[in-house]
Structures are given as structure tokens and as C-alpha cells.
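Hi support team,

I'm filing this because I wasn't sure whether my run with 6-chloroguanine finished correctly. The job status page said complete, but I'd like someone to confirm that the output block is well-formed before I use it downstream. Pasting the exact inputs I used:
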Amino acid sequence: MHIDIITVLPELLESPFGHSIMKRAQEKGLLVVKTHALRQWAVNEYGQVDDYQYGGGAGMVLMCEPLVNAIEALSKERKYDGIIYLTPDGQTLQQSMANQLSMKENLLLICGHYKGIDQRIRDHYITREISIGDYVLSGGELAAAVLVDAIGRLLPGVLNNETSALTDSFQDNLLAPPVYTRPAEFKGWKIPDILLSGDLKK
Ligand code: 6GU
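And here is everything the job wrote out:
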């Protein structure tokens, strides 16, 4: 799977995919994540990508032109199965949505910032709007990181048996049981006897 991310803050997305399972998924060639700084499509030499909103009101809005140029440039490289805008007023991310998206080949994620992006981009390019919960973040980057992690770990071959997604708490809508590791007693706190019984089924 190939995921492109357009952002005004590529630095914010350097670390989330550089460790653990996301790192391994990329090393195995199962996942490619590329961030693209929106500023390379700025409208002037000052690197401008945002402007005041019509009608007044506080906060800047990401402009049409840099976003259109970014989307068009990246769309020449590959055909996207979805152009997703991360926004707090989008559809709330759920496991079923992650499952569905993990079956796509190419995704383009757009991170909003400040007051968001010009509505015309949403009207003409965005195929899906996703939120990661009912609270407001400063930008879509952290939400994009959450989405990519949720999708990436589902790609066939990314997880091994031990970490299989099929036993995840939310995969079957059941809560996972509590887990313990050695020692069997710590500070007088004992693990449940049944775990020491040697009976795997129980
Ligand atoms: Cl996708 N973006 C922002 N800015 N805030 C959020 C969010 C997204 N999801 C929950 N809060």
C-alpha cells in the first residue's frame, strides 16, 4: 500500500512511522508512507499557503491553489483510491473503516491546519472526511498518524502470529482479557491462579 500525506508540518510526521510495526511494514516493502510539504506548492516566494477567511473570523485557511497543485502533481504519479481529509467534523474513525481502507492500494491524506482548508477543495477533490474523535487537535497530522497506524498494521504480512490483528480488542468488538507477564508475584500482587494451571484452554 502506498500512502501520500500532504501537510504544512512534515516534521511532525517523521517519527510516528519510524518505529516498531510501522517501521517493519515499510522495511518489508508492504507499506510506503511519503509526506509532502505543502509549502513546495506555495503561491509566492514567502512560502504562503494560507490566507484570511472571507467574512472575517479568526484563523487562517489553507488556500485552494497550493492544495490543487499538490493534489494534481501527486495524482500524476498514481491513481488514488481515496483522497482523505482529516478533519474534526469528519466521520469518526472506527475499526471497520480501518479494515476497509486497508484493502486500498493508494491513498492520499490531506492534513488541515489552522481553520482548515478552503471548502472548494472538499467539494471537488476529497472523497472521504475522517475524524479520530470528538475533540479538537491543532492540525490533522496526529490524526493522520493514527489513521496510518490503524491501517498499516492490518496489511497482510505486517503482523506476525503473536501480534495478530485478529486477536485485537476491537477487531471483534470484544474487550481483550487482562494480561500479565513474569514474575507471577510482584510486591505481593499475584496473577490469577488459572494462568499458572497450565491449562491453555481455561
Ligand atoms: Cl482529523 N483533525 C483535527 N484538527 N482535530 C481532530 C481530528 C482531526 N480528529 C479529532 N480531532
